[in-house]
Design brief:
alpha/beta, Dihydrodipicolinate Reductase, domain 2, ten-stranded mixed beta sheet, six-stranded parallel beta sheet
Length: about 450
């Protein structure tokens, strides 16, 4: 059930185009200087009568956190979750709905609304692309959490959609791209050649959870289990398949390969220039990988236990000669090793001789940050999203580079599932010489939950 939203005094004819024109005008005067700080507070206060209107789809822990961020920039008119409890809690939260948002359990009701400019998609991974494409078709700007896709095919589908609807801003929630102190400094160090020619990268992403067998139960009354499953196969409800632990099942996610991999592989490939279309690894070695249940031909033989890889060292080799190991072992973070030096970076630190000796002195500041931000000033992650609504242009976390990241994440998972080496043609975007591995390129969706082709 939805509730009628009380009037905010804002004219229903106030369209997204009016919002863009107004904010673009403000931005034009602000950008007279080469660089300026543009804080959330400044934006929110100056746009008090002309703020984007937001619908939030998916309101578990991460979804609520993102909704809090959106509230700083726009007015949240609708909240939606297939778990009625999540939707109600989000509406009651004074920092999200404040008791005034319309509440839905079917995301299509949000997309139907002409008064919503921005959609925030923070569902389980297997729903991302379908909702995101339909949101673009409905004329919405889209903020979508990582990992954006479930399969290699979905990478192509969302990229095609973003090209077709290029007037809409599409932003991926890879917030490490806005970490000035650590990850952006790391990318700058590598891209500017401070450590010489990169030879080896170790990407530590930890291992997935091990658990089960779990008990099959009746789904709770507050949860639409059929809708939660969506394109995934119909199975009995197991609490551990849902909500926070969905990512340990290949049916809905790629385990740690797509969870932390979507962050760290992204930074690694951005740094070495393997983030453009046609780039990426040419060989992926998954022979050193273990799963918590037995596998046959790449599929788990048990349906009541976590099944994503928990112990692995998958080696990705690039045509340039760079070797990147994606591993569950050792520290979480990225170790870059070049011909002149090496350093390590994660969310808590950046260490190594290049950092201790400040090799990038006078070569890392507003100018370099703006370059990484595609010509826009460095600022908070969601600030960049809303700036792009006003000014146009690609955001720092753009769909096109993220697709390249997800190609590598999915290839790592496929190689691990099959415990063998697979070959990838990054220009044709095809697994070559291995029909069994190539069959993992796409998944046939359950009837009624097909992803639009645009």
């Amino acid at each position: 059930m939805s509730r009628k939203l009380h009037s905010t005094g804002q004219s229903e004819t106030h369209s997204r185009r009016q919002f863009l024109r107004t904010t673009a005008s403000l931005a034009a005067s602000a950008t007279a200087a080469a660089w300026f700080p543009w804080t959330q507070a400044v934006f929110a206060n100056t746009m008090a009568n002309d703020r984007p209107r937001v619908g939030c789809i998916g309101l578990g822990g991460m979804g609520r956190g993102d909704a809090h961020g959106h509230k700083s920039f726009g007015d949240i008119l609708a909240v939606c979750d297939v778990d009625q409890n999540h939707a109600n809690q989000a509406n009651a939260d004074p920092n999200i709905g404040g008791g005034k948002a319309d509440v839905y359990t079917d995301y299509r009701k949000v997309l139907e609304r002409s008064d919503i400019d921005v959609v925030s998609v923070v569902t389980p991974d297997h729903w991302h692309v379908k909702i995101a494409i339909e949101a673009l078709q409905a004329g919405k700007h889209v903020f979508c959490q990582k990992p954006l896709t479930l399969t290699l095919e979905e990478n192509q589908l969302i990229r095609n959609a973003c090209r077709k609807f290029s007037d809409r801003v599409f932003f991926v929630g890879t917030q490490q791209r806005s970490d000035q102190e650590r990850f952006l400094r790391a990318v700058n160090l590598v891209r500017r050649g401070f450590i010489g020619d990169v030879q080896k990268i170790t990407v530590g992403i930890n291992g997935g959870d091990v658990g089960g067998p779990f008990k099959k139960e009746m789904a709770p009354a507050n949860l639409d289990w059929n809708m939660w499953l969506g394109q995934a196969p119909m199975v009995d409800y197991i609490p551990q398949r849902c909500h926070n632990t969905f990512r340990w099942w290949y049916e809905y996610s790629g385990g740690k390969f797509t969870d932390w991999g979507a962050h760290h592989i992204d930074i690694a490939q951005w740094a070495i220039g393997e983030d453009g279309e046609g780039s990426g690894p040419v060989e992926i070695d998954g022979t050193d990988a273990k799963h918590p249940v037995p596998f046959e031909n790449g599929y788990p033989t048990q349906d009541d236990s976590f099944n994503s890889a928990h112990d692995y060292a998958v080696v990705c080799r690039y045509a340039s000669g760079v070797e990147m190991t994606v591993t569950s072992r050792g520290d979480n973070g990225i170790l870059f090793e070049g011909s002149k030096g090496r350093f390590f970076v994660n969310r808590g630190k950046i260490t190594g001789q290049p950092i201790e000796e400040n090799w990038d002195k006078d070569q890392y500041g507003p100018e370099q940050l703006s370059e990484l931000y595609k010509g826009k000033p460095f600022e908070g992650h969601k600030n960049n999203f809303y700036r792009c609504l006003a000014e146009g242009g690609l955001p720092v976390s753009d769909v096109y580079s993220h697709v390249q990241t997800m190609n590598t994440c999915h290839l790592s998972a496929i190689a691990a599932r099959l415990n063998r080496v697979i070959k990838w043609d990054p220009k044709a975007e095809m697994i070559v010489g291995d029909d069994m591995a190539a069959a993992f390129f796409a998944r046939v969706p359950r009837a009624g939950f097909e992803i639009p082709r645009v």
